[in-house]
Design brief:
The chain is α/β, with parallel strands linked by helices and 240 residues long. It has one domain: Alpha-Beta Complex (Spore Coat Polysaccharide Biosynthesis Protein SpsA, Chain A), CATH 3.90.550.10. 37% of the residues lie in helices and 16% in strands. It has a seven-stranded mixed β-sheet with strand order 3-2-1-4-6-5-7, with helices on both faces. Helix 2 links the parallel strand 2 and strand 3. Helix 5 packs parallel to helix 8. The longest helix has 21 residues. It is globular.
Amino acid sequence: MSYKLTVIVPVHNEEENLPRVEAAFLDYFDKALLPTKVLFVNDGSTDASQKIIEKICLRHTGFEYISFLENRGLSAAIKAGFDHVQTAYTGYIDSDLQTTPEDFNKLLQFVGEYDLVTGHRADRKDKFVKNLSSRIANGIRRAFTHDGMDDTGCPLKIIKTEYAKRIPMFKGLHRFLPAMILLQEGKVLQVPIRHFPRIAGKAHFGVWNRLLGPLMDCFAYLWMKKKYINYTVAKKSNDQ
C-alpha cells in the first residue's frame, strides 16, 4: 500500500492500553481519509509493552515499531518518530487513547491549507487539578510564543512531514510544536476534538512538570526563536 500518513504512537509502560490501540487503529484504517500506518516508538518500557508491540506488528500490516535502549522521554520519542517517517504527513497520538484515531479525519480536512493541524480538547475529561495546571501552562506558553493555540499539548496532531523533520527538538519541546511550525513560517490551525477519561495505565506527567517544566522551556524557545535560521533556495546547479 502507498501510505500517505504515518501516526507516531509513543509508548512507555502501556501494556494495558496497547490492545485498545491495536483495535482502534484497525477500525480507523478502514475509515481514514488517507492511507495510514502506525509507528510505535517504545520509549524504554520496562513492562510487557515491547512484546505486545512486536506481536501486533506480526499480526497486521500497517504497524511498525522502533524501540529505545532506555527511557529518553516523550520529546525524544516524537523526534525519533519524525526522523523515521517517510510519508507525506506525520500524525501523533498518545497510547492512552484519551483521544481517538477517528478524529484524525477531522484534522485531515485542513492539511492542504495548513502545515500543522492540532486538536483542541474543548471538553476535557481529566481531573480538576490536571485541567487547571494544563490551562495555566497553556496560558504561559501562549504569552511567550503568541501561537494562538488554546491546547498546544493536545496529543492529536498532523504535520506535513517536511516541516516535522526541520523541527530542532530538545527535551520539553513537544509542548511547542505549533510554535516551531510558525518559526518555519508555516500555518497552524486548531480543531475541536473529543476527549475521553484515561481508563488504563498511569499518566507520566504530574502537576509540577506541567507547570515548572513549560515555564523553563519557554525561555529555551525564546532563545531558539532569536537564533532560528530560515532560508529559501532560489536556484540550484541541476535546475539548468
